[in-house]
Amino acid sequence: MVDYLVVGLGLAGISFCETLERNGKSFRVISDHSQKASTVAGGLYNPVILKRFTLSWRAHEQLTILPAFYAGLEKKLGVALDHPLRVLRRFVSAKEQNGWFEASDKPGMGELMSTDLISNTNPSIDAPFGYGEVLGTGRLDTELLQEAYRQYLVKKDLLVPETFDFDALELPETGVVYKDVQARQIVLAMGFGLKQDLYFNYLPLNGTKGELLTVKAPKLNETRVIKSSVFIIPLGDDLYRIGATYKWQDKTHLPTEAAREELETKLRSFLKCDYQVVDHVAGIRPTVADRRPLVGRHPAYKDLYVLNGFGSRGVMIAPYASKALYGFIESGKELPRDMDIERFRKRYEKHGAV
Ligand SMILES: Cc1cc2nc3c(=O)[nH]c(=O)nc-3n(C[C@H](O)[C@H](O)[C@H](O)COP(=O)(O)OP(=O)(O)OC[C@H]3O[C@@H](n4cnc5c(N)ncnc54)[C@H](O)[C@@H]3O)c2cc1C
């Protein structure tokens, strides 16, 4: 008998397991490699929506717990995951500059948006209107986190590396049984794999495909993240990640020629030096119709929970949502209404799960 069975080992599953471990709970994990979002993610944490110059959802609360959470994982796993990086938003006009400074004046924004106009000094980038800087930003190496955490669980014999078989799940009145595992609760943290989930597939998870390139650009010499029509994220060794695309129809993990062309066209519109594409990856972001996470208890089964819907901000949301779900299950703390799946109860009553 364990306290929890967790399905999925992306940012959601890892953050929840970590929350369990820190609270002395026992658990077992089942995960395959059918979803790739946490493997391919750019890994940026940045509290400002750089299109509209507004704060992302509950950013202050998330940033309060983020550094210590990932620092704890770094210490435990013995790897460097959190790389603080400056994020610069490239302006395309004087109007945009003004918009930035107006936004930085709004309540709660001053500590996250610098009021300095930063001039471009990098000859490999075209940025005549300069940049605005977001504060407190960085990149989490999500691929390394996933691999290191997987190995950690394997060593402790806590990971079953297989596809979850919904037919083998039993939900008696109390607790759950899955093959030879008995648990008090089960948490499904399957990213876009929720579409195969027999219990929560009534939830409006859309899924948005994203593709990223890795390029080698020895003459770029940039240590900051540059956000223009695409992001340039420095990885070290003259390597940069370029992304990402947003596509709503294609739900495969296959990199496409069209996306590569789109990313390169956007990149060339402001990058002035040569580069070579060395990698190209794709994944599906677990995006939700109302852009809020999907967290909470199943309407009909009291020991069945979901942790999903982190969209394009998994790095910031995962520790926050995991903490909220844990507090809800263990201490009956109310979930913030806007991420609680209770908001879709009518949908469940109307359609049920398939
Ligand atoms: C191109 C791209 C760029 C991104 N960039 C950023 C970024 O810069 N910053 C940021 O914060 N976020 C970014 N994201 C979003 C981020 O990746 C997601 O929000 C986050 O990874 C979602 O984590 P998750 O654990 O919910 O889902 P996933 O990462 O998809 O993990 C789900 C896990 O469950 C497993 N699973 C699914 N179904 C089953 C099953 N039936 N049986 C067993 N296991 C199963 C999967 O194999 C996987 O291990 C990006 C996403 C993409 C695609």
Classification by helices and strands: alpha+beta
Rg, rounded, reads: 21 Å
Name the quaternary structure: single chain
Could you state the order of secondary-structure elements as H and E?
Answer: EHEHEEEHEEHEEHEEEEEEEEHEEEHH
Number of beta-strand segments:
20
Low-confidence runs of at least 5 consecutive residues: none
Which percent range fits the helix content? Answer: 25-40%
Approximate strand percentage: 15-25%
The span between the termini is: 29 Å
Envelope shape:
globular
Helical segment tally?
8
Give the names of the bound compounds.
flavin-adenine dinucleotide
* Mean pLDDT rating: 96
Tell me about the biggest sheet? 8 strands, mixed
Describe the structure.
The model has no long low-confidence stretch (mean pLDDT 96). The protein is α+β, with helices and mostly antiparallel strands and 354 residues long. It has eight helices and 20 strands. Strands 1, 2, 10, 11, 12, 13, 19 and 20 form an eight-stranded mixed sheet that branches. Strands 8-7-15-16-17-14-18 form a seven-stranded mixed sheet. The two termini are 29 Å apart. It is 27% helix and 25% strand. Helix 3 (59-77) packs across helix 7 (314-331). It has helices spanning 11-22, 37-40, 59-77, 94-104, 142-155, 257-268, 314-331, 345-351, and strands at residues 2-7, 27-30, 44-45, 48-49, 54-55, 82-84, 87-90, 131-134, 138-140, 159-160, 169-170, 176-178, 181-188, 208-216, 225-227, 231-236, 239-243, 276-285, 294-297, 304-308.
